[in-house]
From TrEMBL:
<feature type="signal peptide">
    <location>
        <begin position="1"/>
        <end position="21"/>
    </location>
</feature>
<dbReference type="InterPro" id="IPR036412">
    <property type="entry name" value="HAD-like_sf"/>
</dbReference>
<dbReference type="InterPro" id="IPR023214">
    <property type="entry name" value="HAD_sf"/>
</dbReference>
<protein>
    <submittedName>
        <fullName>Predicted outer membrane protein</fullName>
    </submittedName>
</protein>
<dbReference type="Pfam" id="PF11019">
    <property type="entry name" value="DUF2608"/>
</dbReference>
<dbReference type="InterPro" id="IPR022565">
    <property type="entry name" value="DUF2608"/>
</dbReference>
<keyword id="KW-0732">Signal</keyword>
């Protein structure tokens, strides 16, 4: 059964932060709730004043296989209950491995209705954009994955009033972290920077204000970050939607987000792939150093 849960806060401390702000947090495993929320905010504030912001991985799209997908990434970075052994930790994860697997892999919509919903919101006149933790150097496979599923943010990008969407790529410092960020075609790639502050950075860059923002992400941390960033913005009604469909489906099917057997399979698949690539392209060994260092 689909479930929808209105979350006052993920924790007592967060509740204290947002209790007096125009911030709502919703947890759901269905895009039907996203659609209902957008409709409600559009009716209240108007289409042009309601911005829709999506994460990509396990929110709009999900990998066909575990290897290289968001579950694999969470496992490799120690964010799941099951941790990789020392032998299973992929070297050059950020420098080489992630980009390689993005290029090799394919993705499908998390729910069949996702592409058509986005298209309808765009036709209605909403600004609709993607805000991803992926780095700018994987933009080509990211845009390819979206395009293959008929998702295109170019026409609904946030841009200065009366101007085309900017093409932006620079080193940006947010929350004492300096990383490369890019924004073009309605997709902001943040290299893992704080998503709430990244969105505020984009709105300042384009000199845009929206009365309402609907933000959808599968990461609880990103939902918290976005809520904290807008807690003091009394003129912005933020609805942060924690989208749990993929994790809920995995729990129902496998009994957990990731099983030990699945983790071992991913490790074996990576070793097989690396061996094959190193055999065909021996220069990839690079003396044990990362290729992109």
């Amino acid at each position: 059964m689909k479930h929808i849960k209105l979350i006052t806060a993920f924790s007592l401390s967060l509740f204290t932060l947002i209790a007096n702000a125009n911030v709502s947090i919703i947890e759901t495993d269905s895009f039907n709730q996203v659609s209902n929320t957008v409709a409600k905010k559009a009716q209240q504030y108007g289409v042009k004043n309601t911005l829709i912001v999506f994460d990509i991985d396990n929110t709009l799209l999900t990998s066909n296989v575990d290897l290289g997908g968001d579950i694999w990434y969470q496992w490799q970075t120690g964010k799941l209950e099951i941790k990789p052994t020392k032998a299973q930790i992929v070297p050059c994860l950020f420098e080489d491995a992630i980009g390689l697997l993005y290029k090799l892999g394919t993705m499908v919509p998390t729910e069949a209705q996702v592409p058509s919903l986005i298209s309808q919101w765009q036709l209605n006149g909403h600004n609709v954009i993607a805000l991803t933790a992926r780095p700018p150097n994987v933009r080509p496979p990211t845009e390819r994955a979206l395009t293959r599923r008929s998702i295109n943010f170019s026409g609904s990008a946030v841009a200065p009033i009366g101007e085309k969407s900017p093409v932006y790529r620079a080193m940006v410092t947010i929350d004492n972290q300096t990383r490369e960020v890019s924004y073009m075609s309605g997709i902001m790639m943040t290299t893992g920077l704080h998503k709430g502050d990244s969105l505020k950075y984009l709105l300042n860059l384009t000199e845009r204000h929206f009365d309402a923002i609907v933000f959808v992400d599968d990461s609880e941390n990103n939902i918290t970050d976005m809520s904290q960033s807008f807690k003091s913005e009394s003129d912005v009604d933020l609805t942060a939607i924690h989208y749990t469909y993929i994790e809920e489906q995995r729990k129902k099917k496998f009994g957990a987000v990731l099983t030990q057997q699945q983790a071992n399979t991913m490790a074996s698949q990576w070793n097989d792939l690396k061996l094959k690539l190193d055999t065909l392209f021996p220069g990839r060994k690079n003396g044990g150093k990362c290729l992109n260092q």
